[in-house]
Amino acid sequence: MSKYNPQIHHRSSIRLQGYDYSQEGAYFVTICIKDRKYFFGEVADRKMKLNEIGGIAKHYLEKIPNHFPNVEMGEFVVMPNHIHCILIVGTRHVVSQPVVWTSHVMSPRGSQQPSNQNQFSKPIPGSVSVIIQQYKSSVKRWCNKNDHKYFNWQSRFYDHIIRDDKSFQTISNYILNNPVNWNDDNFFNE
């Protein structure tokens, strides 16, 4: 095994540097299957037809709020080789307070969030990274136990911090229309 060399072995983060991904907000997340293989089903007649693994992936997405009480699911879709979803972090416990949009993320009126930045790559409980890691682990564990050991996720995921109502609506519509527009999708490959 070769000695650690930061010039060769450095993996740069694709997360927004200095941003606290456990703070209240809405996040658009895309999770891909390794090599973008079609493991979740197929698009037929402009509708997503989930197979067994795709059904499990959807089931575990729906269960995220059961495991993370401060998270709500926005729109989501399971596609043949990837998943799009909106995670809304930190809104369930402030039901009585109106939610307003700030210049960065959605937050309750008057809330002050302590900085919870991940400065040393230690997982932050309730952060988007921890939620996605646990989701991916649950689906992979199910696959391993049910004779689908060949299934693997891409090692990372993509995220976008949703900053206002217009962006939230645009992304929600994109997710809902993903099966209809599958042939034009960046993840479509014949």
Walk me through the structure:
The chain has 190 residues and is of the alpha+beta class. The chain has one domain: Transposase IS200-like (Alpha-Beta Plaits, 2-Layer Sandwich). Helices cover 26% and strands 26% of the residues. The chain is built from four helices and eight strands. The strands form three sheets. It has a four-stranded antiparallel sheet with strand order 4-5-1-8, with helices on both faces. It has a two-stranded antiparallel sheet with strand order 2-3. A two-stranded antiparallel ribbon has the order 6-7. A hairpin with a 4-residue loop joins strand 6 and strand 7. Helix 2 packs across helix 3. It starts with 5 loop residues before the first helix and ends in a 14-residue tail after the last helix. About 20% of the residues have low confidence.
Provide key terms for this protein.
190 residues; alpha+beta; Alpha-Beta Plaits; two-stranded antiparallel ribbon; 26% helix; 26% strand
- The domain tally reads 1
Mind telling me which CATH architecture this is? 2-Layer Sandwich
Look at the structure and give the mean pLDDT. 78
Helical amount among residues, as a percent range? Answer: 25-40%
Strand and helix order: HEEEHEEEEHEH
Q: What is the spatial order of strands in the main beta sheet?
A: 4-5-1-8
Q: Helix segment count?
A: 4
| Main sheet properties | 4 strands, antiparallel
Form type:
globular
Distance between the termini: 38 Å
According to CATH, the homologous superfamily is Transposase IS200-like
Q: Beta-sheet strand percentage?
A: 25-35%
Low-confidence stretches: 8-16, 92-120
What structural class is derived from the secondary structure elements?
Answer: alpha+beta
CATH class descriptor name: Alpha Beta
CATH topology annotation = Alpha-Beta Plaits
Radius of gyration: 18 Å
Beta-strand segment tally:
8
